[in-house]
Amino acid sequence: MSDAAPQETSAQPSFSLTPEEVRLLGVLIEKAFLTPDVYPLSLNALVTGCNQLTGRDPVLQLTESQVQDALDSLIAQRWATRREQAGARVAKFEHLVRMRHSLPTPEQAVLAILLLRGPQTVGEIRQRTERLHAFSDANALESVLEHLADKFPPLARQLPKAPGTKEPRWTHLLAGEPDLDAMAEAEARGPVGGGLASRVAALEAELQALREELAAFKKQFD
Predict the structure, then answer these.
(1) Nearest-angstrom CA–CA distance, 174 and 17
(2) How far apart are CA 41 and CA 68, in angstroms?
């Protein structure tokens, strides 16, 4: 029999959301700020939000089925829930980030932007959170980022400064630890050309979803 003591594992718990789940959760948080009058959101509204051409990086073209699968998974993991509303003809959904992680408004805003736009500098995050929450200065934002990083498990972290850059970037950790090598390769390749057709297709899908959402609202008022 070996006298060696068993080694204790010190692995910290982590998250493992898929890209679709990350996008959907970001949309749920963002729209709670931007469209409170129609929040919680229907499935059609979520599809539209996930496939938006603005404020998204990367731009995605998710189907209703993909969004529904991601939504079911978020509900099972207690990141989101279905809200029952009297007289509602369609199901509505909302996020549970505030309840799950006790995140105040500023931290929810920052997390949403990280989920929707990927790694960003403090300056970029401050600019992009303006419509959700206005930070008085960069120090106030950095305090929020540090608090997200100090959560257990951490929700965000600062990335090593990339060669040729002046500022480090921050990223969320809801999809696990970032692949730094893959990120470096993507940056080295730069923007990929030939994306016009995919953006036009995404715009058409967004327009169609908006038409369907408008029709649903008209039915409710009628």
Answers:
(1) 6
(2) 13
Residue 14 is assigned to a structural domain of this protein: no
* Residue 134, domain CATH: 1.10.10.10
Question: Would you call the peptide bond into 58 cis, given omega within 30 degrees of 0 as the criterion?
Answer: yes
Provide CB contacts within 8 A for 10, sequence distance 6+.
none
CA gap 150, 138 in Å, rounded? 18
Cis peptide before 153 (omega within 30 of 0): yes
pLDDT digits (tens, 9 = 90+) for 72-99: 999 999 999 999 877 778 999 999 999 9
Give the domain extent around 209.
Answer: 19-185+199-213
Q: Is residue 74 part of a domain?
A: yes
Identify whether 10 is part of a domain.
no
Per-residue DSSP letter, 77: T
